[in-house]
Amino acid sequence: MPTYDHPRPALSVDCAVFGLSERGLEVLLVQRDLAPFEGSWALPGGFVREDEDLEEAARRELREETGLEGVFLEQLYTFGERGRDPRGHVVSVAWVALVNVRDHAVSAATDARDAAFFPVGDLPELAFDHDHILAVAEERVRGKVRYRPIGFELLPPEFTLAQLQHLYETVLGRELDKRNFRKKLLAAGFLEDTGEREEGVPHRPARLYRFDPEAYARLERDGFEMWI
Amino acid sequence: MPTYDHPRPALSVDCAVFGLSERGLEVLLVQRDLAPFEGSWALPGGFVREDEDLEEAARRELREETGLEGVFLEQLYTFGERGRDPRGHVVSVAWVALVNVRDHAVSAATDARDAAFFPVGDLPELAFDHDHILAVAEERVRGKVRYRPIGFELLPPEFTLAQLQHLYETVLGRELDKRNFRKKLLAAGFLEDTGEREEGVPHRPARLYRFDPEAYARLERDGFEMWI
DNA sequence: GCAAAAGTGTTGAAGGTACACCCATGT
DNA sequence: ACATGGGTGTACCTTCAACACTTTTGC
Q1: Contacts of residue A88 in chain B, CB cutoff 8 Å?
Q2: Alpha carbon A85 to chain centroid, angstroms
Q3: What is the pLDDT of residues A29-78, one digit of tens each?
Q4: Which of A75, A77, A88 sits opposite B4 (nearest CB)?
Q5: What whole-number distance in Å separates Cα of residue B210 and Cα of residue B214?
Q6: Of residues A83, A90, A69, A78, the one with CA closest to residue A137
Q7: How many angstroms is C1' of C5 away from CA of A208?
Q8: I want to staple A30 with a disulfide (CB 3.0 to 4.6 A). Which of A80, A112, A215, B187 is the partner?
Q9: What would the pLDDT profile of B37-46 be if each residue is shown by its tens digit?
Q10: Among all residues of chain B, which has the CA nearest to that of A75?
């Protein structure tokens, strides 16, 4: 069966991009400008070109449809059930990203009428099996945030421990004890005190911390484990 | 970009099937009977047909090339780097399975000259990027066995605690304390005492246990967690 | 001085690890 | 009776969860 001419499924990529706002956890959707599902909201994504790397394809679609660039993408799962796309057999490699919404203005572009963040608890009907992909993505994020410091992409580069705790509470969907949280995170050793303080708040300003990727890489290499 | 005619990568599946023997952890390989890499050893796998479900494709290839059937497959990762296949752009969805070697005779068939288990520490050169896929698969198994009772597929249906402990020690690559291991596993509540004993051993015969999938499903549903 | 959030320690319970001997069976 | 692996309990230590008050700042 030669590679260049046997009949084969089409291959696409789809991205579940999560952000955080006052409304809680949100996900980036685009409004489709083409059939099928024209006018429906969907995860940003599209077909992989021949000789295109999967991650590059995901980045390209994200850039083309939403204007987002430079995010960290993690491969989630590959969905290939028959019937998931009315156009025929389309296998989709799904990716997850976490972004700080304030740093990334989104704007609709190619093939997309509009692009916007929606709270995960209040979504429109989604095209294809994107509700399923999104459920898997959310589960992955919730599962992973408990043992890997992956939430930091959702915050500004410098943040207070209260903001970080709030992030964890939002993603995990439960409250955490302030003292225990601070003890655990500071003891973990990958937070760097910037020496700076919050400004312009009508109460005692909090210290600002930074995530230290090198320190974390060192800890991980040495078999460190942390659980929230 | 219509689905039915745009140029697209080819899609394949590859399976990393692990088994256990006196030699330790082993993986199932096939000797290729076709170019490219004719005569090389490789993970069993092949092209996904149009309208074929991904998992079905993995099962079909496993059956055709090695005679294995009825195993539990878990999707591992999708590999799509340019240059991983000399025939062109081939994206491969990799799957992992664990099997009890004694229950599954393997035999070469379609497109494969031979099929056999090899100890993971003593492998031949592999075709394509299969050494890389296998490394990822091994990491997944080692990681997962610590918090999910996935090792049971590697043992006969009824097994002694010593066999189970040996399995964990083999997969994890370190020794475990017998008393603590027994305490933890029996307390976990998904092992069922069959009431039977080992037979024909030149020493006190051990109790035989069975993995109880329903009990485990119940525990998992209730948010149970176990760590070795 | 008042409101609002920051920051800080201790105690009790549970769980994990380390460790050594007797038991049942086959030969 | 001896060799071989099966089977069992305890003490210490570490880790986790629960819990309330003082401090600093802006207004």
Answers
A1: 3-4, 50-51
A2: 23
A3: 999 999 899 999 999 999 999 999 999 999 999 999 999 999 999 999 99
A4: A88
A5: 12
A6: A78
A7: 14
A8: A112
A9: 999 999 999 9
A10: B77
